[in-house]
Design brief:
The complex is a heterodimer of chains A (320) and B (352). Chain A is mainly alpha-helical and 320 residues long. Chain B has 352 residues and is α/β, with parallel strands linked by helices. Among the domains of chain B are: 71 residues, no CATH class; 100 residues, no CATH class. Chain B has 13 helices and 12 strands. In chain B, β4 and β5 form a beta hairpin. In chain B, α4 crosses α5, α4 packs parallel to α7 and α5 crosses α7. Chain B starts with a strand and ends in a 7-residue tail after the last helix. Chains A and B meet through α9 and α10 of A and α2 of B.
């Protein structure tokens, strides 16, 4: 097992290296805005732009830039400086991470607490009115885009502008102080970010559990005289939850990597997604590079977690 | 009064395609120390009938009628909780595929412990000791070590032994074995059957052995019931069924198993045709589309399970008269094929 993890980690590092190289190539090939011109301002002379280009090191060939970048990264854990405000990339990302992690973990808790039980009940009461209503609602939630759902939620429920002012502080994450105020500001974002996933997980758990409940070992469990509750929760869910764990690991990795961008934008949360958005707007190469590496890191990391969890959950994998 | 008496059991399922009459008018009984073999093709209703005894076919679309009397109690009248208390305690069941019938994610020992503790208020340690004891009893070597194994670490035969151990852990009065050896190789089959027989006499259990394999029945059963299209078409003591079978379907089953004493060039004769639809069963005798001895009347009249005159405990559901059937079987035993037998006995052509 340890050997397996070590091998996976090594692969992860190699993958990160390839990802960085690809970003450099993409950046030099794609017609993004000229970062030097963007920084120089509107009325800059060509000489000024050229000076800035030299300062940023953008006048040198791409492969030299790449070697420098990787050298600093590997030898000094230095991700470079943002073109925008000369702040170390690492500091900017680390500043944005807590908000994103707080947002994502809260949303994960919400969608698991809602989605999994809903899926179980729907599977047990298959084809009932309740099941049909659930399936319809989940489909609606999956179809609702986050930016739309976010605005609707704001107009309906935020204490400041909502029709039914239940949740305070939506959109005030940046100015909040202390964990409780931050949490209060995140209630609506949590719900909005969790909505589609709760629906997807409910459907996923439902179909997974329905599959498992037709297995022979479920019949055995019933023949043993176990209560239906125990048959479903101990025997059925034990198997049905395994693919859900896989999905969860990937989802969390992707969201922390910056995919919560829409929720962060609608609710004005200074997280990784916002940083990604802003950096791309400004053609801020070091920032983009750093963010992609961070994103790739989280996705690889959670993938590894999933595999380890899988080995833990399924004894047949463990011994392979 | 027998330990288990089933009378006029019917299990119908309402589906989108129509009502599936999986089991119809089935009656049988079994006593402690006795083995009842239930034989039939896939879809003949043998498994459904037995799952119904345990309430495992109860569903919104299932219509169950008839009586299932176990130790004087009608199981069909019990509510789900009362029936659950019987399952795995007084009546236990083992299934065809021992790999898919054990939960892949739990240790074998834990699955046995669970079976004990759902019915008995005992400590975890006591239940564990019992699990180990039972694994030893069913012939698993080093049981104190193997309780810690997962099902995938067991061989096929060992898994079925573990299933048997799990079924017997509460010393049931009745064991229902649904095709217990079908998924196993021949040597293992024999071992498992011997094991079931041994445990039956040690625990003085009643056993219902469901199988499509007449060889298995010959080895173990006292009584045999042959099922076809959801009904019992012939029933009797095992010796009678093998020596003097009275139903053309039973003849077909007997003629489709290889025997040491028939010449190799005598090909095995499979029963022609397909099992009938349980939604739209054939008119008259449900076996008539496949029966080589069919008479016009057989397409209209539904035969009842009647006693065979002069043969104790032997019943058959066939419209041919018993004497004709006796002569037909004698011809078949003599190595003739059904066409010849039919001609010799003097049955006219089927379209007459």
């Amino acid at each position: 097992m340890l050997q397996y993890i070590a091998r996976r980690l090594l692969w992860g590092v190699a993958l990160l290296f390839i990802v960085s190289a690809l970003i450099f190539v993409l950046f030099s090939v794609l017609p993004t805005g000229d970062p030097a011109a963007l920084r120089a301002g509107r009325q800059a002379s060509p000489e000024q732009i050229e000076t800035i280009r030299e300062t940023l090191g953008l006048d040198r060939p791409t492969h030299e830039q790449f070697i420098d970048y990787m050298g600093d990264l590997i030898l000094h854990a230095d991700f470079g400086f943002s073109f925008e405000n000369d702040t170390p990339v690492l500091d900017l990302i680390l500043d944005a991470l807590p908000a994103t992690i707080f947002l994502v973990l809260g949303a994960v808790a919400v969608w698991l607490l809602v989605g999994v039980p809903t899926g179980i009940i729907s599977a047990i009461k298959r084809r009932s009115a309740l099941d049909r209503a659930t399936m319809f609602t989940t489909l609606a939630l999956i179809s609702a885009p986050v930016f739309w759902l976010g605005l609707v939620a704001l107009y309906l429920f935020s204490k400041e502008v909502g029709l039914v002012p239940i949740f305070p502080g939506a959109g005030t994450y940046q100015t909040a102080s202390g964990p409780f105020e931050h949490a209060a500001a995140l209630i609506l974002p949590w719900l909005v970010l969790a909505a589609a996933s709760a629906a997807i997980y409910a459907r996923y758990v439902r179909s997974s559990l329905i599959d498992v409940m037709s297995e022979d070992y479920i019949r055995t469990a019933r023949a043993k005289g176990l209560s239906e509750r125990r048959v479903i929760l101990r025997h059925g869910m034990r198997s049905a939850i395994t693919p859900v764990v896989t999905l969860l690991g990937l989802d969390v990795g992707i969201l922390i990597a910056g995919n919560a961008i829409l929720t962060e934008t609608v609710f004005n949360i200074p997280g990784v997604g916002r940083l990604v958005f802003d950096s791309i707007q400004r053609a801020d190469l070091p920032m983009i590079q750093g963010l992609v590496l961070f994103g790739a890191f989280f996705i690889i990391f959670f993938n590894l977690l999933v595999d380890i969890a899988y080995a833990y959950l399924d004894p047949r994998v463990r011994y392979r | 009064m027998s330990l288990l008496e089933v009378s006029d059991l019917a299990v119908h399922f309402e589906t989108e395609d129509g009502v599936v009459k999986a089991v119809d008018c089935v009656s049988f009984a079994v006593d402690r120390g006795q083995t009842l073999g239930i034989v039939g093709e896939s879809g003949s209703g043998k498994s459904v009938a037995n799952l119904t005894l345990l309430g495992l076919t109860r569903a919104d679309n299932a219509r169950i009628s008839g009586d299932v009397t176990f130790e004087g109690r009608d199981l069909t009248a019990l509510d789900a909780d009362a029936l659950r208390a019987v399952r795995g305690d007084d009546i236990a069941m083992i299934f065809q595929d021992p790999l898919s019938s054990l939960h892949p994610f739990y240790k074998v020992g834990d699955q046995l412990v669970e079976a004990v503790r759902v019915h008995r208020e005992v400590s975890a340690a006591a239940a564990r000791a019992r699990a180990t004891e039972l694994l030893g009893l069913v012939g698993i070597p080093q049981p104190e070590r193997r309780v810690e194994d997962y099902p995938h670490e067991f061989s096929g035969g060992m898994r079925q032994r573990a299933m048997i151990a799990m079924a017997l852990v509460n010393e049931p009065k009745l064991l229902i074995a649904d095709e217990p050896t079908t998924a196993l190789d021949v040597t293992t089959q024999a071992q498992i059957l011997t094991l079931i027989e041994r445990l039956q006499s040690e625990l003085h259990m009643a056993v219902i052995l469901i199988t499509h394999d007449l060889g298995v029945v010959a080895q173990t059963a006292d009584e045999v019931a042959v099922m076809y299209a959801g009904r019992i078409v012939e029933r009797g003591p095992v010796k009678t069924i093998f020596e003097r079978p009275q139903h053309p379907y039973t003849w077909g089953l007997l003629r489709s198993i290889p025997r040491m004493n028939t010449p190799r060039e005598d090909d095995l004769t499979p029963i022609s045709g397909q099992p009938p639809s349980l939604i739209n069963p054939p008119s008259g005798c449900s076996f008539h589309p496949r029966c080589p001895y069919v008479r016009p009347r057989h397409r209209e009249v539904d035969p009842r399970l009647d006693a065979v005159p002069g043969d104790d405990g032997h019943e058959a559901a066939c419209l041919l008269d018993p004497e004709t059937r006796r002569r037909l079987w004698r011809e078949l035993e003599g190595g003739h094929d059904p066409e010849q037998a039919r001609a010799t006995v003097g049955l006219g052509s089927s379209s007459e």
